[in-house]
## 1
Amino acid sequence: MKVYSKFARHLVAVDCIIFGYDIYEKAIKLLLVKRSIEPAKGKWSLSGGFVDEKESLDNAAKRILFDLTRLKNVFLSQSYTYGDVKRDPGARVISTAYFALIKIRDIDNKIKKLNGAEWKPVSKIPALIFDHQKMVSDALSELQNQIKARPVGFELLPEKFTLVQLQDLYEAIYQREIDRRNFRRKILSMNLLQQLNEKEKETSRRGAYYYKFIPERYKSFSKNGFNFNLDAS
Amino acid sequence: MKVYSKFARHLVAVDCIIFGYDIYEKAIKLLLVKRSIEPAKGKWSLSGGFVDEKESLDNAAKRILFDLTRLKNVFLSQSYTYGDVKRDPGARVISTAYFALIKIRDIDNKIKKLNGAEWKPVSKIPALIFDHQKMVSDALSELQNQIKARPVGFELLPEKFTLVQLQDLYEAIYQREIDRRNFRRKILSMNLLQQLNEKEKETSRRGAYYYKFIPERYKSFSKNGFNFNLDAS
């Protein structure tokens, strides 16, 4: 429209913070790539790209995630938009960050090799380009908030998991220990998990029952004003 | 930089959700304007504008807020970026929303008249242009979350207030009643308020002590890992 034509136009990018959880190392990890264009070519970076003319921000995030991982229907949540004029030394670029939660085993190792991407534990991230370190720490805070109030943690776990594995995940995200009995009581009282007739026996002789998360229960409870609250301390 | 030159450029706007609190009506209100340009000229709208070439998103939000209210140093928080291709019928515009918390009495009535702006209770908002209604409800959810975890509510109150007035504010934001004794106990135990030697006597004969919030205490407590938590129920 003509009235808008006098205003400045900007490059707009989306950067994806891709979180995965390593159930054996009990560590939250980030999928990082080596940047393919100048400036800062070859440096560790989040996976990002420019928003096309006829593409929504959400679709740009989905495209960037798919191009790297070949995954669709992944949990994606917008976290923050970074708009400082000099944040990218290449040009003025406004960037909206999204974080994704994926199951590490869903990514084919071949794909990873093809793209030169690597999983790095959030506790030991290499130097990242531009303001990507800030994007990661903001997204991690946001994840810490969301995991208290919504059942997003299950996106990071295999379909079946033990209660200890679920607690390990929460401790990895909160980056502190939480009380075991309180946690079990809270999560079981919400009635969102189904106990399976099968035990995990690698870590103890007695074994621990596997559970799975039933998203339909959460949906139907939420409609009735149910409040997910796992602010375990 | 040359490598970026092939990518699309976008109009980027900032829209401000300006919240105020009416201590007498016990209502959260929004400062709305009538849109001055086509399309949708003359319709109720948030106060917004386009981001300049050499202006950060934060500075654009401050400028837009200042142009309307003549206020500086106002609480501003980015809430979400709206990136659907057809959200604005005038052109493809990506818009980042910020919400502001201001004391209603800080705004001169003359300025309001000059700009044709009006305070409307959030419970009775007129039809707004584009996706502005969604921006308001998202910002309100964000405010509900922030007010639990950070002392942002004081931005909306006069310098001195009674505990009942503070509770009224929380009830107006949560849009539900909260338990009076629990609330008083929680807020006083945080030791962030100073009781003044002065009473409010308009609403009861016995009167109620005024308090004020001491931001320095919050800053010094926060450094030592203090956790503001007013998740009163």
## 2
Amino acid sequence: MNNSFILRGGIAFSNGKNNIITYSKGYVVCVDGVCKGAFADLPDMYKGLRVYDYGNNLIIPGMSDLHVHAPQYTFRGIGMDEELLEWLSRYTFPEEAKYANLDYAIKAYTYFTEDLRRCFTTRAVVFATLHNEATIELMNQLEKTGVITYVGKVNMDRNGGENLQEASAEQSLKDTVAWLDAIAGKYKNTMPILTPRFIPSCSDELMRGIGKLSKERGIPIQSHLSENKSEIAWVQELVPESTCYANAYEMFDTMGSKELPTIMAHCVYSDRLEMQILKKHGAYIAHCADSNMNLTSGIAPIKKFLDAGVNIGLGTDVAAGSSMNMLKTMLISLQASKMYYRLVDTSVKPLTFEEMFYLATEGGGSYFGKVGTFKDGYDFDAVVIDDSKMFSMRDMSVRERIERMCYNDADVSIRDKFVKGKKIFSAII
Amino acid sequence: MNNSFILRGGIAFSNGKNNIITYSKGYVVCVDGVCKGAFADLPDMYKGLRVYDYGNNLIIPGMSDLHVHAPQYTFRGIGMDEELLEWLSRYTFPEEAKYANLDYAIKAYTYFTEDLRRCFTTRAVVFATLHNEATIELMNQLEKTGVITYVGKVNMDRNGGENLQEASAEQSLKDTVAWLDAIAGKYKNTMPILTPRFIPSCSDELMRGIGKLSKERGIPIQSHLSENKSEIAWVQELVPESTCYANAYEMFDTMGSKELPTIMAHCVYSDRLEMQILKKHGAYIAHCADSNMNLTSGIAPIKKFLDAGVNIGLGTDVAAGSSMNMLKTMLISLQASKMYYRLVDTSVKPLTFEEMFYLATEGGGSYFGKVGTFKDGYDFDAVVIDDSKMFSMRDMSVRERIERMCYNDADVSIRDKFVKGKKIFSAII
């Protein structure tokens, strides 16, 4: 299969956040890794290209996971009766400390990268640990998967305990530069992202240094924002001069810009002021509903943020989220949105399925450029899905089938997965 | 395999609602279909029995699904942007009307019963439709699965539209008696349960007739209670003399008794008064969190009911719930409970994993008698689970593994399933 071809099947993709275009037997065209559009009838100009007919399979854009912790993958699904700060100190920090051992990292990251290769995700933004060697190992492994990722060596110079804390802000910044230098020019699919864990883990000096480094090198930033009430109160103590948590990031020049947007995971408790800060900087919210429910954090009012024009994608947030399956993340995000409406504020309508499909595909995909839909000029990221095990007594429409697979992912499987026109996973091989 | 044997593996079972007993390499003993207990070391008296060694697999009690609609199985996962009453009229009632056609029912029910045979459920309480022939067909199919079930021909003599409504209360009751007579003595595993759909579907006369029939024949009742605010308001209009929805059922003598408990699905909005009515009658709540989130109904305060001593089990409520997988139901029920605590009432603590495991096994199982745990004298219902695909960097305890499989069910599979000591499903055959 070269990099120009046509896929045929049941096609669905977002056309704006409120509309899903579907073709029951349609064509989606890839030329040199770029999508040339999807069509009910194949335009004459593409009739020379080879057509791969997937019959009744579904073909959708690849999904973007804007927030996932690679080192936490191996303990996902345990300790889930805890809340954030207790869970971090009891489970997460002791596990991440083990990545000081490169042999441990080599083995553990194999599981993570293989799952990422096989899931609905074609783009991901990943936290590693604070360890340079292990982070480079993770990037080496990810590069081979063909999934396009941003990966961050984590910065943390306080409150990590003796086993998961850098010696000083200076040392943390020095290690960060060494990491960036070591990987410069090394990868095609794998990019660095600066990753101050969150303000409780990073001194003011470290935060300022990261803000400066981001500007100097043109490297974006990811972090966590307003996930849990105890965390927010702690940030207010640590940075008393800030007007809110987002403002603390802003003070340190780490909130990014429209050209180099920062990704902030969670924003469960972000109010109008924080929303304005996020919007002003062009920042992305990584909405992690599974994680936010599991750790009893709360529910982010995503519909409100979306209507206000804030950039938003979905994050699985493994291991506080228990799975990298974006369909499950969509389901739980829909349920979260319905409960926010029902239990918190009936003026904030639930997200529609159309909006959720958009968030999982183009919403998060836009962080990577023209990614996440089948319109002309977008990168050709696609997932071919076999849902034939989902018995039905009648022919379901493509729109019904993509909703059904999201509410019930157990009976669907991925047949092929493409990134920029390259097949990076096939169930058959 | 005869009906007396021993299973060896990683064993977990509830000992009361707050405690899970585990053995990493334990034994659970079955004699004549009855559990004789689980042990770390095999007692001498059982050393003559054959041991089936499942190695590192998990062995847990079978689960009970207290609320599932068989005819809705084939359209699960669509129309999920709707709320209850709109969803019923747009999707559910038109689909259920099709079961007037026996050929349709024969085919559609095949999918439902095969899934039920293969899932974690060993006991289920099932809604059919109002059609006698189709209901008997469903019962015939269920009997063959070996899963022990209660099945209800639905009663509805009003508000079903022209295609899903019985001619009169008298006709509905006459058909119900004809159905009971037709199946009397026919099955070993499949029992009838009287099933007035809910008060909006049943006239006062019909409700009273069902209450009378229940007492005369000693057949229990299942229905729906306080699921959705519009539904509750409607019931208040329809039965203006009732003090609450539960009281309306009580007035018609359909709330059952400790000897013959009624199952009420949902109870999302049941207050202290309704809780007292449920408890007084020994009624069971079928908690259907997946359904309650999907239809934007709300979250039932299950922890409060549990602490008050009300009988509770879990229900998948397909098709408002999208799957018969009880692990997924457990996950979503845990998330729902955490969000009730966080968003509605911090005096109602989240359900612990121990409590959720209890609800899925013995909580619902107790409706069927001594069912749902591995203590001496309980029916031997067991599920053997292979979780070897869940990679980990260390040996997880059995307690960790059962939590992990509930938060992330995608990587576990059922190896064997037993009901009353009979193997009714095996992945190998």
## 3
Amino acid sequence: MKKLINRVDDIVAEALQGMAAAHPDLVEINLEPRYLVRRGAPAAGKVALVSGGGSGHEPMHGGFVGMGMLSGACPGEVFTSPTPDQIYECTKRAHGGAGVVHIVKNYTGDVMNFEMAAELAQAEGIEVRSVVINDDVAVQDSLYTAGRRGVGATVLAEKIAGACAEDGGSLSEVADVVKEVNESARSMGMALTSCTVPSAGKPTFELGEDEMEIGIGIHGEPGRERTKLVPADRIVDRLMEPVLSDGPFKSGDRVLAFVDGMGGTPLLELYVCMRQVAAVLEDGGYRRERTLIGNYITSLEMAGLSITLLRLNDELVRLWDAPVHTPALRWGV
Amino acid sequence: MKKLINRVDDIVAEALQGMAAAHPDLVEINLEPRYLVRRGAPAAGKVALVSGGGSGHEPMHGGFVGMGMLSGACPGEVFTSPTPDQIYECTKRAHGGAGVVHIVKNYTGDVMNFEMAAELAQAEGIEVRSVVINDDVAVQDSLYTAGRRGVGATVLAEKIAGACAEDGGSLSEVADVVKEVNESARSMGMALTSCTVPSAGKPTFELGEDEMEIGIGIHGEPGRERTKLVPADRIVDRLMEPVLSDGPFKSGDRVLAFVDGMGGTPLLELYVCMRQVAAVLEDGGYRRERTLIGNYITSLEMAGLSITLLRLNDELVRLWDAPVHTPALRWGV
């Protein structure tokens, strides 16, 4: 296993310290239990937005803490849910008096631990609303999930709901916009290679030199099929077809297209794929009004990509375009 | 070879089309010969900033075209210099009447082809100043270079000089600030793995399961030493020591620290390294006033990192902080 790490047990804590060193103007960290909050938290009178999940998907979620996006994030060990204690403490620290929305990706451990944390917080009088993200159309149930997995829509929901909270949206309004994004978005991913979880020390799965996995999960969970490698345009087609047919999309719709690298994919290749995403949408009569491309929800050094589509309306566009200032997403400021 | 591509010969053109599709508000592309310019180029009355080099280092340079940074960029084939014709046409297209500064990384082919393009442009009455970037302290001469190689300082010079041009700086002023950044910056990189150039179809070099290469070039050129893998903190130490001792740095200096991923390095690991970069600078009495961390100058899917330090002064900080709006760097707007 070749990684730029010290001791396996220290990776997450040391990366958090690195984030604090790199972005002292944006985030504050707590090491015991581990979480990040926006600098100067809580934002008094505003709804707080807290997310979290296993580490190894950076910049998600810590890289999305800051003005106009998350109030706090709880990083678990690599590919491991954060503990109820982490989420509870982060929720308390982020709470500005107007309640807290939990954005939870649909993995069994995450859902359970966020639920326990919400109960603990509610017992202390903090109002919490939880929304589960489940946009991945690849499989119905999966290794760590009952129902669909939560992937790319998480990033979009965190940005859009963060803008709503920044605007002074109520607890219901912020929770509702997370739900709306989740219902209006669909995703699917694929991998060319596995990644290696540090504590395991070897690749999570093996793929032949001419094989790829279509519908992969962000922890390497099996997808729909393992097939021969085909040209990039055909790979994009095989992701776009189920995303478009499963989702709420119809020709003429306004959409945001999000092309996401899995961590080890050269940007050059993401742009090659972007070209075909744009072509498929244009051919189908969709109006692509916003685009996000880069590494935002990753699986360590896995090579591959995922594609997320979000159906837009005026309000979602307005919230998407609103200023954001986090380590990984920044505009308007 | 596993890559998200169609035909090897089409990668660069298709990636350019993907960039145009993703960022229509920021860039315009030309396919024959290949270059990108800022949307609405030329900016009349302003000095134009043109760079370029082999593809495979994305987002450099195309991702840095836009307001407050580059006016144009010329992508060669993967790890291959752009042709004089590309650079000449891009220079003409970007020229807004106030002259053009060429930012050239010190690789023999780049230097030669930018020189020829500058002569062609000058023959047509366009004033061109060229500045060669050579910040890499790893080796004196290298596979494709006489003298030091140009790496991370290129990104910093493009940002800072772009702000100077945006401010209405004269041709001399813009060229001089590129020189100042180059003289005030030093870099060194390392690799855990090789990358695979698409046209070669196999890794550029082989490294054993427990080996790393210290002082690697961004095309996989040999570095200072191939040694056993050591913990991340010790790797950072072995990059920081030569960077600090070769450069113009002395304790008490204000510095910008740039921790750059080679393309296949998880962000989690970059932050682990960031922690030690911050610690070394603090121990040495340096005042780290600005930080950049992420994948900005890459080597396809190579795993590894480079560290660049820039000595700051008030004017460089002002130009660094000035608004920028490109596909890969954005703030203040």
## 4
Amino acid sequence: MRPKPTTSANDTILLSHGGGGLLTRRLVKDLIVRQLGNSILNELDDGAPLKIKEKDAVFTTDSYVVRPIVFPGGDIGRLAVCGTINDLVMMGAAPRFLSLGLILEEGLPMADLERALASMRAALRGCGAKVVTGDTKVVERGMGFGMFINTAGVGFRVRGADTRVANASPGDAVIVTGPIGDHGAAVMSCRAGISLRSELKSDVAPLWGMLAPVLRCGPRIHCLRDPTRGGLAAALNDIAEASGTGIRIVESAIPVRKEVRGVCSLLGLDPLNLACEGRAVVICPRRASGAILQRIRSHPIGRQAKVIGRVCKGHPGMVILETAFGGERIIEIPTGEDLPRIC
Amino acid sequence: MRPKPTTSANDTILLSHGGGGLLTRRLVKDLIVRQLGNSILNELDDGAPLKIKEKDAVFTTDSYVVRPIVFPGGDIGRLAVCGTINDLVMMGAAPRFLSLGLILEEGLPMADLERALASMRAALRGCGAKVVTGDTKVVERGMGFGMFINTAGVGFRVRGADTRVANASPGDAVIVTGPIGDHGAAVMSCRAGISLRSELKSDVAPLWGMLAPVLRCGPRIHCLRDPTRGGLAAALNDIAEASGTGIRIVESAIPVRKEVRGVCSLLGLDPLNLACEGRAVVICPRRASGAILQRIRSHPIGRQAKVIGRVCKGHPGMVILETAFGGERIIEIPTGEDLPRIC
């Protein structure tokens, strides 16, 4: 059952919502606990007690400063939950506990906060994770951002999983689980005021549902990496550098929606550098790639998964693109100037 | 050995430091890992692997938006580490793993970031905790804050410790571990441009060193709470409300520095509502209070610890101050309007 909105159209965030007094309490109880409540969070203590049996835990954090806070296909709340869940999944871990740090701008419509919280709630569904502790701060009006969110996460490693980027090995297949660049293109086009007749939407989604069967049932994956900031180019360079291997990808094999190509040519961007928020790069032994692709494609968000290249011994630390015209080009790690505040 | 500064006077944060590309990598490796590095953090993976034996873990988060980012007695880096360590200690846990989420403003002098990181490093010393994972974002110039920091933390409960605010029991003694309001008064006077001849400094400090022997060796404490946002007034009201008891405190017994009283009378503030960042309220059986006070006072930051009142059956949920003039006054939870952005 979805909780009914508790806020009226005129309610906004006041500085005193961040003062630690009565108004902070009410905000937390009436809005945050109402949307995200569970037996641990509801204690509203300084922290959350976690019962952990002997396990390999994974701990991660990310802050989200995306502008605008609502974009085609998602919002900052969904992004924050998915981003942290996906970081845990990339480490081979089942997401379990999340913290929520809100930094709100004075004057933020309460309805915007409620929307973000409701999105978080929806994104958490089916992931086995919950928000167990949090903190709310308010800063003065005029900073022009609405809200920033930090989510830290704790998960537990799937038995036997070892998905570090250093594990890539010559001969491995390089899989991408869907079209790349949707998130970056959706946010950038929204910000540039480009309205496309077509339906360009962020791919922001939690990856646990798609990758849990692969992690749990094998065959064994060598590496997992989500191509977020810096896009596929940064993810593949990370893998090549950490593993001391070379990576060759085939341009014609890389799934890119035509809407994303359109935005890229309008704004002078490269799809390889655009962030995804619901995709993974999966590196696995070539013999296993068929079975793994099949599992990934059986999930709704993995239907367009493809093998896009291979890991090789040559040119260690380098990523080479085999172009559609039979040429080759080095894919460098982007400098980071293209795309501020897309996540 | 303290790492030498790696930045020159003219270096500032650029938007591309937050883009996830080469410049982000360099910032992380040259500055953050250099200051806070350890075997887990240095892996620079999407998250940090934690080895946990079967234990009661505690998970907490806080964002820090203090303005200005450097204030008498500390800075935002020290505040962020101490705040999260102290939240874990208040839950009866030994601090162990921290995450670090940086939100930086474009144009921030690199030296300011380095200073904050060095403060974090110094505050972590002797606490048994380290930063094991992190994230860096950059937002556009002109937002006027310099940096926000989020730290989440994982700690492990000391065997037998149960320090929830609901545990206060009639007859218990109420101890405060030092003078109250130093942090709030230092930040507010700095912001108001009040220069005091005297040495008014924030009390920001990690509480693990002082409270570890108390938690580990007994006698048993009933509750712990750090009077941060909302000050002693909010902390005591939290305890009274959660435990369904009344609390009576004696005005003349509450340690308040005369410099803090001075700032309060100038700015129209109440010391009871001012944040502390290196103090704790300790509730314990009256018979045990002597032994506990002795342990606390044996630590440098606990020398001025005092019993300031008692828990009673009457007026459940209410905090009563016995004034210096023999009267009584209800101490309410502050509404939060007084003190924006003190932590």
